[in-house]
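for the writeup, i need someone to sanity check this before i put it in the appendix. the sequnce is what the collaborator sent (i think, or maybe the updated version? ugh). structure was predicted straight from it, no edits. if anything looks off just tell me and ill rerun, i have time this weekend
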Amino acid sequence: MLSIFQHQRWNSRELSNTKFKPNTTKLVFWFLGEHGVEPLTNQTYSSLLKNLAFLKKFADGILVPKSYIWPVDPSFYLLPHTSLVLDAHKEGLQVFASDFANDAPYAYNFNYDPVTEYLTFIDNGNFSVDGVLSDSPLTPSEAIG
């Protein structure tokens, strides 16, 4: 199932004064650049990646750039996938991949075919992300048929 969602930014005061519906409201933690600092925890995003159990205390899932899952080398070829999706699923977190766009550069391994890129994240035999965030939603829709 492909998940598509809108995001809304919340600050800590708004979160503490908000009543969420635990059966319907899903909180997704949005990872930015690995070396950036997340303002509420004052930790880098890369350090938070190593502490997924902490994130599970308040989030149902994580939204990460696709390069956190399938990194590419400087020549735009895929490197081996990370264990992020498997590790997050072990902690009970859903994983959503972002930074997909048909007109953005992507790994040469996909032969300039964005559908193949989506399938690598959705159906690769090792893991599957729970959803994607795309600038071109018709393409992942086509990929999952």
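The first strand starts at residue 28 and ends at 30. The CA atoms of residues 32 and 45 lie 7 Å apart.
thx in advance!!
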